[in-house]
Structures are given as C-alpha cells and as structure tokens.
Design goal:
This protein folds into two domains: about 1-155, 2-Layer Sandwich (Ribosomal Protein S5, domain 2); about 160-250, Alpha-Beta Plaits, CATH 3.30.70.890. The chain has nine helices and eleven strands. It has helices spanning about 65-75, 100-115, 120-130, 140, 175-180, 195, 205, 215-220, 220-230, and strands at about 1-5, 5-20, 25-35, 40-45, 50-55, 85-90, 145-150, 155, 165-170, 235-240, 245-250. The protein has a four-stranded mixed β-sheet with strand order 1-4-6-5. The protein has a four-stranded antiparallel β-sheet with strand order 2-3-7-8. A three-stranded antiparallel β-sheet has the order 9-11-10, with helices on one face. Helix 1 runs parallel beside helix 2 (about 100-115). It is globular.
Amino acid sequence: MVVFPNAKINIGLHVVEKRKDGFHNLESIFYPLTSLYDVLEVIENSTNKLEFTSSGIDIPGDSTNNLCVQAYSLLKENYNLPYVKIHLHKVIPIGAGLGGGSADAAFLLKAMNELFTLNLSDNDLIDYARQLGSDCAFFIKNKPVYAYQKGDEFEPVQLDLSSYDVRIKYPNVHIGTAEAYAGVIPTSGKVDLKEAIQQPIETWQENIQNDFEASIFLNHSSIKSLKEKMIQEGALYASMTGSGSAVFGVFRK
C-alpha cells in the first residue's frame, strides 16, 4: 500500500500558557497542504522482522526512533500484526514547522488500519496519534481545524484556500523546539483566531500573528527576509509556519 502524507501550515499561532506537565497550551489554525507530500509504502514482510528504509531527504537519528516505526509498534501492542516493510521517501523538509514527521506517523496508522482490517474508527486512530505527538492527531481527518490545548484538540473551521496559490519557501534552517519556546512569553486573550480566520484574507496580515516569529526573526534574519520578500511579491498573507523555519505565502492565482 502506498500513501501520500501531506504537509500542513499554521495560520496564526498563539502560545497561551505553560502547562504543569511541561508542555504549552496553544491555539492555531491547522490547514492541510496537499500539494507538498512524502511517499510512504507499507507491505507485509515475509521475514520475521520489521524493516524501515528511507530515501529523499536524509532523516537524522536512529531509524528505530522514527515516528513511523513508533506508530507500528504502538498498534502492535494491541493487535497481532504481521511484520512489515516500511519505506519512506522524504520530501517535506525536516524541522520546518510543516508537520512532515507527524503526517508520516498518522498516515502509517491509517494505512495499517486499512491494510490489516483493524476496523479502527477515526476517534480510535486519533487516540493512538495523540500518543505519538501533538500534531499527529490532526492528520487523521486531515481537514482545516482550530487547534487548541497542546495542539491536539480540534474544532472544524470553514476554510478553503484551493482558489489561491499557497507557496512555501524553506531557508534550510532547522529550528529546535527548545530554541523556539525560549523566546516566547505565553499570553492569553489575544485575537480570536476562529473569528479572524473568517474575515477576508486581506485582513489577516494585520490581525493574525505567529508568536514564534519575533524571537526567531532576531536570530535568523534569513527567515524574516523570506516573509518580507513574499509580501513584496504580492502575498495577501505571509507567515512563518509552526515554530519555523518554513515560510508560506497566500497569493491570488
């Protein structure tokens, strides 16, 4: 079975408060970007072992820690699954705020569910995905949402950018989670994102902000320049996505 885990963008991102468990509560609009995707193949393995291989963008670290492997192992704890071969062709930049790793894990869960007829509902899959990472749960339904709490609780939003041209620029800079959060002071009571996202796109630039931009732009001027260039080129709205470092712009087609 071959599936195509897609990227996502954050339209607005507010860090609301630090939680007692060390994570942060946030709010954001998650929007699936189906024009940018990895390729994930899963097939049953005749040998008695799990195999994971990859191509495309180099994936750092031990393959046993890959989220796809973790997703398989999580399901195997509760189901008598056969061993599989997983091959991931990586296209979505890593550490860019585009959710590529989370998408890969979520699509692996969905592929296993279909391939081996596990009969898991979307809610069941979301529960598994939450155990793998905050963004993972979004990719189960893969539709525009208002995300809150750790970014793993959702409310659907009416948003369709298919008539616009959404462009991504990646400065080849990796922003770690620790660096991103070090420069942010959590604040509540900001713009109501659910209301702001329903306003004309021309109003977004003034009203919808990403809290990570201020400190990251100070340390990485190349990312700031990408956003400014997109606005100069006519973007109706431009922003860094997630905690960076990719920047996206919404243009008229």
